[in-house]
Amino acid sequence: MVQRNAVARITENRFLAAGIALIVIAVAVAFALINDDEDELGSKLTDRGGAEQAAGRNDGTPDATARAGTGGASTDTPAGSSRGLIPGLPGGPGGPGAEPCTASKVEAPGVTDDSITIGQIVTDSNQIPQQLRPAHEGLQAFVNVYNRSGGLCGRSLRIEYRNDNLNPATHSQDARELAGRVLAFVGNESLLDFLDYQREPPFEPTVQGGGGKVPDVGGLAFSYGRSQSQWHAGVIGSVSPTLVGGGQYKFYADELKAKGTPCREGGVVYLREPTGASEDQARLGQVSIEESWGGRLGRGNTQLYPTNLLDPVPAYEALVDRMVADGMNCAFTYTDVQSSINMALAMRNRGVWPPDRCKRGNQCFRMFSVVLSVYDQKFIQDAGDAARSVSTFIPHIPLVEVDHPAMKVYLEALRGVRGARPSTFSVLGFASGLMFVDALQACPSAPTRTCLIESLRKMTNFTAGGLLGGTSPFRTTRATFERYGTFNWKWIFNKWVVMRVLERNGKLDFYRVGPSQGFGESALQVARGSPGVR
Question: CA 526, CA 44: separation in Å to the nearest integer?
């Protein structure tokens, strides 16, 4: 009997196919949740469930005036802590300049007199469209540089790493085993993270060990259960089924209008998969593209186009032909990196992309927007000149800005991990490690799970020393939405950089196009359901 590979399991299994969709959805929602601060937030979307302003935070969330340092923990630093600097990283804990600190005896899973053990579970399979191993490489790079700087009060960090290989049984076994012997999970990036949490509010962990629940620090969650749990602190925030915005589409619209080449109609491309989750999130993005606070295309001037996960270039060529026949001249994709490559190649093959090489007049596409997962050298290498002018948004300093102090430290640390290369998921892994030790500044000499999760829940404006725009992982907006009822929904990141594939000094790469430095900042809206208690 021939053994099925990971792609076959994805195609045949409802939940594994959903996992692939969720990695796309997570990064797509990260962009859909952007809205321009200068716009008035309050338009009523009566046909879409009533999108209104996502005003403020729920009770119990830190007030906006809470301390927000570059490291991010909002609690005051106790006497004898080890707050200081990772060499060259502003706001990072540990290392030269830190205050003296002596480890104390403590009874906590994973903590000994000279070490702290953390767990990490990653889906690492070269047969799936999105590679997640860089999350481990980034965390390992952080641990290496942090341990060289002296660790936490003399305790070095140790990673217990597991690859679930996209196998539910393996994942569940790994999670149970690690829960009993680590202080926390740090930087998990598994497509199976929906197995670890309830699927309805309050989204409690289903995996426990070591005498209780395990703090889940950093990473980008791919399921609503994990992302919205009070036991997970997302390093760039948390996706939700209710919050949406349109700042990136507003940026595109303003830019194209200034050039005299506006979008007339927009095609929204999503993955056809068993759960319908990809289509659901594409419909939220469609709202952002149409509304006045987003792309301003207006109702009825967008259309949804389904694709399959493994569709080849010829299938995308047929899709492009349909879009052209329908009058589309802008494309917005909610797909993985390989699907986005195939879409770009198809647009080029049909002569409608890139804009500066198109000879088809009004049929030329003016915008091609992709999600965070496509911010990868693989996209440029495989798409070639078809990658030109493709745009996206990212929550961290661009990888090409090698002179930025925080980026310098990250890149230097990554060089110490064999085979590692810079990527968004690697940045998230590195930042997850920093979030973990930054939160432990509340109890550096005697770290416990209780202290860690309480510190994380008070954390505001976590920037990983300047790598990220800033995240308050437990900031929420209260909203009522269908099956979930009334819940305090955690925010995704709302500070970003617009990136575009351009040729500069003879090199084709993703480069910053806005803002000129630092990060843009936005707010969120409730796109489905209604704010507050209904």
Answer: 10
| Cα gap 497→445, rounded to integer Å | 37
Same domain, 369 and 510: yes
**For the chain, what is the domain count?**
2
Domain encompassing residue 219: 115-236+401-470
Q: How far is CA 337 from the centre of its chain?
A: 15
Question: What gap in Å lies between CA 343 and CA 95, rounded to an integer?
Answer: 46
Residue 496 CA neighbour count, 13 Å, CB half: 27
Averages of pLDDT over runs of 10 residues in the chain (534 residues) are 45 50 52 36 30 34 30 32 44 52 92 97 78 94 93 95 95 98 97 94 97 96 93 94 80 92 95 75 85 87 93 97 97 90 98 95 96 89 97 94 94 96 94 96 95 97 93 94 91 90 94 92 80 66
pTM listed for this prediction: 0.83
Residues 384 and 452 in one domain: no
In which residue are the tokens 């647009």 written? 347
Instruction: List strand residue ranges (DSSP E) for 198-265, in order.
Output: 208-209, 212-213, 216-217, 232-233, 243-244
CATH of the domain at 268: 3.40.50.2300
